[in-house]
């Protein structure tokens, strides 16, 4: 595939590496090349099969709008824009393109969502819940998109209006650590996912781009990762 990767930061650079390993042709645009979406004109996007975004919350929405309006499929790894999700879903559907997004593209974290979903039953049996997330000090958004996704999964599965409270820590070079603690007067249950590197995110994102080929629609990776 011909892929355009937006963002050559910590995750984007690894996505480019994994895409090349999987024999894709990759062009990368960072903030200089893509100021005011300069890399996303119809001319620049000619021949591109999918755009993968690992940039920042301040520019991800304009990136998505430009790509969707140009009819390009997108994989969106950048977090911090989910307040606009309904508007973007409508935009994608109106333009007949395909977009897959995830707060976390690693298969391990998506399995962890299922574990959290099963454990949410505790909240109907006098347990209280808490979510803790730790990331490197440079991370721009808090709480993490993954922690919010875990909270939503637990909320839906337990039938409670508000999910467990999230506490965020920003320190050192932690790739991404998410914990769910469920506590009753009798015991505690600890669930933990600890990312050892960014490779899991990168592989999931590239495989999501491959999966999108020939599709239309708006997809949450947690609903489709089993099909990759
Ligand atoms: N879904 C997942 O699996 C997953 C996994 C990890 C991270 N993330 C999310 O992905 C995003 C990036 O994370 P990261 O750790 O890679 O951050 P990062 O190291 O700060 O990299 C972000 C990159 O985006 C570039 N950028 C900024 N504005 C841009 C624009 N308008 N066009 C193109 N590139 C632009 C920056 O370029 P300059 O340095 O040139 O300014 C920087 O290289 C964050 O939202 C993070 O939460 C998601």
Give structural attributes:
228 residues, alpha/beta, 6-stranded parallel β-sheet, 8 helices, 10 strands, 37% helix, elongated
Ligand identities: NADP nicotinamide-adenine-dinucleotide phosphate
**N to C succession of SSEs:** EHEHEHEHEHEHEEEHEH
Q: How many helices in DSSP terms? A: 8
**Structural class, please?**
alpha/beta
Shape: elongated
Distance between the termini: 16 Å
Helix fraction by DSSP (H/I, runs of at least 4) = 25-40%
> pLDDT average, as an integer?
96
Strand content: 15-25%
Low-confidence stretches: none
User: Taking Cα atoms only, what radius of gyration do you get, to the nearest Å?
Assistant: 18 Å
* Spatial order of strands in the largest sheet: 2-1-3-4-5-10
Largest sheet, in brief, is:
6 strands, parallel
Number of E strands: 10
Verbal overview:
- This protein has 228 residues and is of the alpha/beta class.
- Helix content is 37%, strand content 24%.
- It has 8 helices and 10 strands.
- Strands 2-1-3-4-5-10 form a 6-stranded parallel sheet, with helices on both faces. It has a 4-stranded mixed sheet with strand order 7-6-8-9, covered by helices on one side.
- Helix 3 (57-69) links the parallel strand 3 (50-53) and strand 4 (73-76).
- It is elongated, with a radius of gyration of 18 Å.
- It starts with a strand and ends with a helix.
- The model has no long low-confidence stretch (mean pLDDT 96).
- Residues 6-12, 29-32, 34, 54-56, 59, 77-80, 102-105, 141, 201 line the site of NADP nicotinamide-adenine-dinucleotide phosphate.
């Amino acid at each position: 595939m011909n892929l355009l990767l937006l963002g050559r930061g910590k995750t984007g650079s690894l996505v480019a590496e994994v895409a090349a390993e999987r024999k894709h042709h990759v062009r990368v645009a960072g903030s200089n090349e893509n100021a005011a979406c300069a890399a996303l004109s119809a001319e620049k996007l000619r021949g591109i099969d999918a755009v993968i975004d690992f940039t920042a919350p301040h520019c991800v929405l304009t990136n998505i709008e430009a790509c969707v309006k140009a009819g390009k499929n997108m994989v969106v790894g950048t977090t911090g824009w989910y307040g606009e999700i309904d508007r973007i879903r409508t935009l994608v559907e109106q333009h007949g393109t395909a977009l897959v997004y995830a707060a976390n593209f690693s298969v391990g974290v998506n399995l962890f969502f299922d574990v959290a979903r099963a454990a949410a039953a505790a909240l109907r049996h006098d347990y209280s819940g808490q979510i803790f997330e730790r990331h490197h000090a440079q991370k721009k958004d808090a709480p993490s998109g993954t922690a919010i996704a875990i909270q939503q999964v637990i909320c839906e599965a337990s039938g409670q209006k508000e999910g467990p409270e999230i506490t965020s820590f920003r320190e050192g070079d932690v790739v991404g650590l998410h914990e769910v603690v469920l506590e009753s007067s009798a015991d505690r249950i600890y669930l933990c996912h600890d990312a050892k590197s960014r490779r899991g995110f990168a592989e999931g994102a590239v495989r999501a781009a491959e999966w999108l080929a020939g599709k239309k629609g708006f997809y949450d990776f947690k609903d489709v990762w089993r099909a990759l």
